[in-house]
Design brief:
With 328 residues, the protein is α/β, with parallel strands linked by helices. Strands 6-7-8-3-9-10-12-11 form an 8-stranded mixed beta sheet, with helices on both faces. The chain has a 4-stranded antiparallel beta sheet with strand order 2-1-4-5. Helix 3 crosses helix 4 and helix 5 runs parallel beside helix 6. The longest helix is centred in the middle third of the chain and has 18 residues. It is globular and about 70 Å long. The model has no long low-confidence stretch (mean pLDDT 88). It comes from Faecalicoccus pleomorphus.
Length: 328
């Protein structure tokens, strides 16, 4: 989206979790959950992140928001480096940077009713004081998120999974943020509810020009909601491109395998689903050379010896593979 303004720049971001207690120190064994990731996000854009479980998608989203402290690299939000900001400075930025958590059951306080859940961030940031104005704002927010306003004094256990996720979305949008990390917001929901939630998010995006990072393992959902798609493997971004380019002409063997595994929603058509051979290597003992080479059907000697560069093979199409551009 070159015509839009950059809202987020992630540069060589790393997040390592030391195996031993304490802070990570250079050279010690660690889980490399996010390993040298770089990308940009534009105003009003949705960037989808896909990959197998454990590839670092959720950790990346939380590290960008400083819910996890980064081990290395920089995060620029509206051209402002937030990597080194203190808690007070980050608290102010929280108004503009929010997250929708994956689990709609554990992310809501069971002792608070919906009104207090939605009012809490507004009161904490001093946007409202308790009174009729706050009540009117919360009820309007509920209406916009597809929740009847007369539900506002009910508790989370009185709602279905889809309704709870709407509460989570309403909470993340209460402060009118311009950037939201959506951490698998529909993975726990029925397909019919998924479409309602996704349409709600798209409507809110058009209304407020919100930028999303949409994390999911469901490539069909990601294709529907995203403008660009990034594919992660073992903590690294292995491919990033516009969704049409990536789905029609994937250039990393891992991306090709993921797309080949998408089932066809037609009972009359049969498709032999592709299976990626082997197990995901450990994030602690990462293979030499290309991280994917132990499972790659196209691997050659150079893949075992030399790590491929993350390079732009076409405009806005980035791939981490020695043979990118050679696959049809």
């Amino acid at each position: 989206m070159p015509e839009s303004k950059k809202i987020l720049e992630v540069k060589n971001l790393k997040k390592y979790f030391p195996i031993k207690k304490g802070k990570y120190k250079e050279g010690q064994p660690a889980v490399k959950a996010v390993d040298d990731i770089t990308f940009d996000l534009y105003e009003g854009e949705t960037l989808g992140l896909v990959g197998e479980s454990g590839c670092g998608k959720s950790t990346l989203g939380r590290t960008i928001l400083r819910l996890y402290e980064p081990t290395g690299g920089r995060v620029l939000f509206r051209e402002e480096d937030i990597s080194k900001k203190n808690k007070k400075e980050m608290r102010k930025l929280r108004e503009d940077m929010q997250i929708i958590f994956q689990d709609p059951y554990s992310s809501l306080n069971p002792r608070m009713n919906v009104f207090n859940i939605l009012a809490e961030p507004l009161l904490a940031h001093g946007i409202f004081k308790r009174g009729p104005e706050l009540e009117a704002y919360v009820k309007d927010l509920m209406d916009r998120c597809g929740l009847p306003s007369y539900y506002c004094y009910r508790y989370p256990h009185q709602f279905s999974g889809g309704q709870r996720q709407r509460i989570g979305i309403a909470r993340s949008l209460a402060l009118n943020p311009s950037f939201v990390v959506c951490d698998e917001p529909v993975s726990a929901l029925d397909v019919s509810i998924q479409s309602q939630i996704i349409n709600l998010m798209k409507d809110m995006q058009e209304e407020k020009k919100i930028s999303y990072i949409f994390i999911s393992h469901d490539l069909s959902v990601v294709k529907h909601i995203s403008d660009r798609v990034g594919v992660m493997y073992l903590g690294s971004m292995v491919e990033l491109a516009d969704k049409e380019v990536l789905y029609q002409n994937p250039q990393h063997p891992y991306t090709k395998a993921l797309i080949a595994a998408i089932p066809i929603p037609d009972p009359k058509k049969r498709k032999e689903l592709s299976v990626i051979q082997g197990e995901i290597p450990s994030n602690v003992n990462i293979p030499s050379g290309c991280k994917f080479h132990p499972r790659c059907p196209f691997a050659k000697d150079i893949c075992k010896q030399k790590e491929p560069a993350y390079r732009e093979i076409q405009k806005n199409h980035f791939v981490r593979c020695h043979f990118a551009g050679e696959f049809e």
